[in-house]
Structures are given as C-alpha cells and as structure tokens.
Automatic annotation (TrEMBL):
It holds the Pfam family FUSC_2. This is FUSC family protein. Residues 683-719 are annotated as: Disordered. Residues 384-506 form the Integral membrane bound transporter domain. It comes from Streptomyces kasugaensis.
Amino acid sequence: MTWSRALKQTARSGLTIERAKLTPVIAVRGTIGVAIVIGLALWLGNPTLAVSSAFGAFASGIATFQRSMRPRPVLALAVAAGLAVSTFLGYLAASHIVWFLLLLVGWTFLAGMAWAIGPVTGLAGTQTVAIMLVTVTLPTSVLGALTHAALIAFGGLVQATLIVVFPVRPWGVQRDALADALAAEADYARRLRHDPVAPFDPQPLMDARLASAVTPRQAKRRPVQLHGPRGLAERVRPVLASLADPVVGVPLNGPERDRARDLLGAAATVLDAVASAVRHARPVRLPPEAMATLEVPVSGPMLTGAARRSAYRLISLLADAVELTDEPVRATRPTTPAERGHLLRPSVPRLVPVALRALRREARWSSHIFRHALRVCAVAAAGYLLGTALPFGHGYWAPLTSVMVMRPDFAQTYSRGVARFSGTLVGVAIGGAIMALAHPGMYICAALAVVCVLLMYLLMRTGVSVTSACVAAYVVFLLGIAGAGWEQTVLERIVLTLVGGLLAMLSYALFPAWETPKLRDRLAEWLAANGRYALAVLDGYARPAQRRPRQVREALLDSRAARAAWEESEARAAKEPVRHRGLSRSTADAASAALGTMGRVTMILEAHLPGKDAEPSPGAAAFATELRASLERAVQDVRERRAPDWGALRAVWEDWDAGSGGQDVALRAADLLLDALDELAQALSRGPGGRNRAARGPERRGDGGTRGERGTAAADENG
C-alpha cells in the first residue's frame, strides 16, 4: 500500500461515525459523578480546584466504559490513584523546566510501556500523562499540590461509590460475553447446514473465557447462569463440526445429511435460546419443534458410525446447557475447591508481578511496544518544548494531543490524529461561539461542561472525532470556570492541536515499528501452535491410557492465541504503507486458510478421542512422531521463505492406511490434516505475483477427489 493510499484510508477510518449501542443510564451516572465533584469545588469557592478535580472524575469515568472484565469500581479507583500520583509529582517538578522535562520523559515512557499489560492499562497510563500536563499549569504550592491530588483521587472515589450504590445491570459485561459466544455457536451451526466446512471466529469464545475469570469475592456472588454454559459451548463446537464434516461425519447427500441438517438447525435454535436467557437473566424458552427434532425418531436412529456418536453427544450437551441455564437467576453458590484454582482472576496487588513480567517481556528493541514508548516520550518532550517556545499560553496542548493520539500501531495513530484534529476544530468552534455570544458565568460554564461530559460518555463508542469534539468543548467551558478567555482558548487549542498531531504523525514516519516484516514469524508461530495442538490430540490416540485432557486444552488455547496474534498482525499490516516482499496478500490469505483448516481437522480429531481403556493406535503413534519432526523443519522453512515439505509425513500416513483398511476415524482425519499441510506448502511456494513456483497439478486421491477439494472452502479456528 502506498503512503498516499494508507493516509487516505486511515483518515477515512478516523472520520467514520459508527452506530453503537448507547448506554444512557450509565452515561448519566458517570456525568453525575463529574457534576458532584465540580459542584463541591465551586461550593468551596475555588474555581481552580474545580478545574483540577473535574479532570479526575472525568478520566475515572472514562475508564469505567472500557472493555475490561475487571469490576468497574476497581477501574475507577485505580485510574484515580494513578492520576493523583502523576499530578502531585508534576506539581513538585513544575517550577523547574529541566526537572519537569525529565519527569515527563520518564513518566511518558512508562505510560507507553503500559500497553504491554493491556489496552485498558495503556489508556490509563496515557491519561496520567495528560493530567500531569494539564493540572500543573494551575498555580499552587506543595500543600496545594496535595490538595489537587486528593481532589483528583476523590473524583475517582465518587465514581466508584456511584457504581456501587447505583449498579446498572450487574454482571452485564460477563453476561454479554457469554451470550455472544453462545450466539456465535448458534450461527456456526446454521452455516454448517449449508457449508460443512464453514469458518468460525474464535474471538467470542476467547472473550467468554476472559470474562469467566473472577476474583474470589466475585466467585461467591456470581449468578448460576454464568457458571457452566461456557464450558458446554466449548464442547459443543467440535461436535457440531464433526457431525457436519463430509469425511468424518455424514455424506454430502442423502437422508443422513438431511437428518444432520435438522439436528444442526435445532441446535442453533437451542443455543440462541440459551444465549438470550443468559443475556437477559431469564429462564430458557424453547420452541416445541426444536425439542422434537432433538429426540430419536420413532423409526430408530438414522445416523451411523461416528456421525451417530456425534449426534448423541450433541443432544446430551444441549440438554445440559438448558438445564444449567434454566435455574433461578438470583441463586448463587460458594466456590468449589476445583474452581478456586481455575480461571481465577488475581487481585490488584497480585497483578504487580504479572505486570512486571509483561514489561520485561516487551523491553527489547524489536518490540513495537518498546518502540512506541520511546517514540511517545520523545514526542512529548519535543511538543512540550515547542509549545513553551511558541507565543501562546497553554503550550501543554501540543504534547497533550500527541500523547492522546499515539498508539503502538500506525493505523490507529494516524486515524486518531485526523479524527482528533477535526473533532477539536468542531468542538472549540461550538464552545467558542457559545462563550462569545452568551458570555456565561462561572456556574453556567460548569453546567455546560457537565452537558459536554454527558454527550461524551453517551457517544463514546461512535468514533474518536465525535468524542474529541465533546472533549474540546468540555475543556473550553472548564477553563471558562477559571476565567480563561475564550478567544485565546480557541486559537491556542486549534493551533497547538495541529502541532501536536503533526508531531505524532511525523514520529511514526521517522521511527516506525512496522508489523508487515513480522508476518512470516507470526505465521510460523501459528503453525507451531497448531502442530502442538495436533500432537496433543494424536497422543490421545497413540496412548489412550496416558491421555491428559489438560494438555490438550492448553495446546488449544495456545493455538487460539497464535491465531489471534496472526490476525491482529495481518490487520495492522494491511493498513501500513509498506509491502512484505516474501509474502503477498494472496499468499497470506491462502496460508491462513490452510492453517485454519488444520485447526478444524484437529478439533474433529479431538471430538472423537477414544476412552482410556481403548487400544493404542500404532499408526497414530508413528504419524505423531513424524509430524513432530516435520513440524520443526516446517516452522524454520516458513521463517526462511521456503515451502515446507511433507513428503515423509505422507509416506507414514500411507503405511498407516495400508494396515488399517481405511475405516479408522483418526486415519481419515489425519488424511485431511495432510491435505491442509499440503495446501500450506502450495500457498508458500507461490512467487510474489501469486504464481506457484513449483507447478504441480492436482494429485488424485483414492476417494475420487483431488487434494485440496475438501477443507479449503473456509478457514476454521483451532478448536
């Protein structure tokens, strides 16, 4: 992608206004918190304190809107504490520009590194830099600095108190995450009726798993509906795929396929009903038609073999899902010993070592987080010096804009820069016009600031340009409380915002951290993770008595994480003005589809794992041994721009096929696994123009199809 096209695309995305689900009650609650803090400061007769404390309540309220599974009061208090500390330290160094500049550089670097812990932590770190830049411009003493810091912390305390006293839809985030996962399963079942190898996005299941992690205190209060359905959704998924698959499940045509379609449709109806019950905290309501379909026909079972086992398993799992969900929604139960060590969310003090490990992991030159931290602290220092040197007051607006728009990746930084400037232009124009025409007093300015906060909270999810307009008008009215002239505020805000945005964009052009060159490494990591998952499942066939479900589960989670990392990198690379010379867009798509198919086939293998009393499979053992060796070579080949060679693995499978008679489920699934690996090799053998350097015709298979005809219609997730 060229620079002009990349800039045009990011500018368009930054100015896009999205349709989002509004949360007026939550927005009103957050606005009341800001109004309480401003009103209290004005009642005490100190407009300067009103300006300072308002930022604390405002930023703490923003934190509670972020997509985090942490309790909202904890987020508000944590952000308020960080704001208070940064404010106090900023006041101590504000009188000496050198000391303040050193503090700003160090604090901004830590705030940039905070993105390694998570996006919510990164945003909170960005806000602490913003508050340091803004509040230290208000004159005060050391005792006054303590007062400002205490008021900022008080703003967060007010927001946390309002959340506790006036809860809005408790457990709503967790309910939505679980309901989305169940609804995604229902949609998957419907698509499988028409496409036996339909794709599935694992993100809803990953979000549901993240939401199910609770603190010990939360575990005692969690509603019954949030206890079991996620695990059932995880187990339903491979059963659905196994039933629909034309090789392991039912044939593509005939009465068995019709019966499978009916079962998949009924499963989708049941899963949708369970999702609705979880989302709205009400009992499950099932139509009688779906219940009748899930019963064994009077004429007897219509499915045979592996498909019949999958159908019985599906009916049992759906019954369990309804039974677990259709309980009194207010009932709770104590945490069992097994749950105490499973998906337990650490408390805030125990997060410290986790955060330190994340920071240490990203403290390397090749890390895009580390380069972002260096970039943002350099820009903040340059913007502060430039803003101070320019003949304007409030020079902090230049570094403030830079810090607020900069993100670890190119696309977000540029799109947010364009959106912030355009939104600021609209916001200061509206706010300045109101100030010029109405000349509002202190209390009217406070009321207008509160209205802007309400609009910002309400429209937060519609786009950066809209929220930037609300914030810009909010700042104009807030500084009007302290007596700042509107004409100076408007002019400074526009010019310095433009300067800050240009600095942020220029920094990424001069010191980039492109994601495109990392694509092959991400692809190799996904292949390695998929391979570990396949080996863990195949070991269950080779040594059933020694099968360890936890090992398979951990390999599955690693595979999902590797896929998510690949998709995130690919999405970032698609918006960058650079090109990967060894991995074209079509090659990346084909390789991604092949690895997705590999994960889907492994998931089907997992669905038919034998019991611990089953006979070991020598063929599966030999296949797993060769797969382990071939994967090590293949991962290195992918990194070094070579096409993997699976000839040795194909030879082992043929020996297995010759000795088994071709009726083994594991054998047939291993055949599909080989197809996916061959498709990966063919995709990576293509030249830059998308042509295959190793021209090979389709190889005929014994079942009458060509290699690649099955499983490549869509890429699926790894289990």
